[in-house]
Prior knowledge:
Helix content is 41%, strand content 18%. The two termini are 31 Å apart. Helix 4 packs antiparallel against helix 5 (125-138), helix 5 crosses helix 6 and helix 6 (158-166) packs across helix 7 (170-183). By secondary structure, it is α+β, with helices and mostly antiparallel strands. It is globular, with a radius of gyration of 17 Å. Strand 1 (3-8) and strand 2 form a beta hairpin. The chain is built from ten helices and eleven strands.
Amino acid sequence: MTTATTQRTNHTVFSVELPEDFTPTWNKIDGITVDGNQITIDTARYFFRYENPTWLLVDWELVRSELLGVTETSEQTIEQLASNFIKAHGRSTNDPAKVLKTGYQVAAHIFRDDYVGVGKLDVTEHEVKALREAATIMALNKVELTGRIANVGPCWFFPIATSVVFGFDEDKGKQVDELYHGGWFNEDRRRESVLAHAALGGRLVHGCQASAEMLGGTVLEYGTNLARFTSELGAMGDEWQDRVKAMGRK
């Protein structure tokens, strides 16, 4: 995987080469250019809000070798193990290319094709690819410890963005969204997700709390003010969602 970054005042145009080709219709999303396995993002065009281009990361190879295989005990839960690992190894970065690269590594581990046809998990390879690719780009979202939502792009609204890119109708979009924020995660896969997301500095929290509100989700650092985060989600309104939907009509 290679990366290249060009700084432009408060915004960046950066490129990352990933191990698999991304779906070319990501080009419908403003600010994203896909050419095979190379993803280029112009933050000035992609983000609706871009207040803090810094993220907390843990080296994926360290997570893979030292954290993914641990088991919880009566003294330490999976969440505590992940939180402690982040405290010990987390490093701040202002390089969004590293964030996207790490986001792919996490997503490729969680949403892997090995799970297609396993048990009662009703998912196709196409849907797993949508989950994997969208989760990669969603790694660029950012929420402050105060609960302030700092960075928001089209992929925050996961079901709408994937419908634009993959051509899902409303029912299929909601079905994939249900996989993302619930249906995928039996207890084994939930624990796997908790540990893997340590590489992105926190835990996955879903915007849709009780119904399919099209609010996607993000990785929050442990200790984030959830009350303010929930309040900010409720104040988002429809403007950004409408802008993402319009990208599908271009």
